[in-house]
Amino acid sequence: MSVEIGLNERSPTTDESLRLGMDDRLATPVRSRRARRQVPHGLGRLLGPVVLVALWFVATSAGWVDARTLASPAAVWDAAQRLLETGQLQDNLLVSLQRAMTGLAIGVTVGVVLALVSGLTRVGEFLLDANLQMLRSMPILALVPLAIVWFGIGEEVKILLVSLAVMFPIYLNTHAAVRGVDSRFVDLASTVGLGRIALVRRVILPGALPGFFTGLRFSVAIAWLVLVVSEQINASSGIGYLMTQARNIGQTDVIMVGLVVYALLGLISDTLVRLLERKALTWQSTLQSR
To answer: What is the DSSP string of 71-82?
Structure first.
């Protein structure tokens, strides 16, 4: 009887310890997966640039690349500090930001309006879409000579080039998103008695937002690309002008400073667009999580 009681007293403890041990072993992979998930997304996105800079440092330090061809990160850092002390970097950066933001605002506005007119009306599509597709096939930079003839060599031509380059990705992606709205939602809106304006505001525009943000990400990157070239054409200010002056006297470190600035601007602007997209499309992430 005593032996039986002793066994009965020990067995729950033994079973409980086995169960706890099994739970700990099963929970270990879960904890490790949770630990991996806790890495901030923004910090993970910095991994690629960090690796790129490390490769750049190794290539220049080991002598694989001539310093006259590609300045080292240390030389670029010294050049950036020198430009900051003289105020050249801040002044030219401010000018480039003004040009890019103005051109981006104009291009996005025009692209969205054209996409809505062409996507929502049959007449608008007939009048606009073919012409815009022809213009899109032309290289934007090939229009530089004609733009200079029309607008001179001032600020207008640079903003015009950025606006044109930005407009087409916005138009294409927004137009495709407007036309790609699920017809079932349109039928449901008609069933509940929504008018055309309410249909556009409550169904078509929210449904086209993902395409709009895709075009906006392309447009932001293209804006900086076109700005680099436009600021090297008869410019007297801007990061592109600073790089042109450095090229004339062989300062590769200053050229690299300009390239790094453009790269950082592109990364920051793309991150801001992604954050804006995440805030605006919270309903989409909620549906996808179900």
So the answer is: --HHHHHHHHHH
For residues 34 and 144, membership in a common domain is answered with no
**pLDDT (tens digit, 9 = 90+) per residue, 169-182?**
999 999 888 887 76
- Count of domains in the chain? 3
What DSSP letter does each residue of 67-120 carry, written as one string? TTTS--HHHHHHHHHHHHHHTHHHHHHHHHHHHHHHHHHHHHHHHHHHHHHHHH
What is the domain-level CATH number for residue 169?
A: 1.10.3720.10
Burial (CB count within 10 angstroms: exposed 0-12, middle 13-18, buried 19+), residue 225: middle
- Global pTM value: 0.73
Dmax (CA) for the chain in angstroms is 109
Residues 182, 264 within the same domain: yes
Cβ-based neighbours of 237, under 8 Å, separated by 6 or more: 91, 92, 95
* 116 lies in the same domain as 10: no
pLDDT single digits (tens) 201-231 = 777 777 788 889 989 999 998 898 888 888 8
Q: Which domain holds residue 22?
A: 2-38
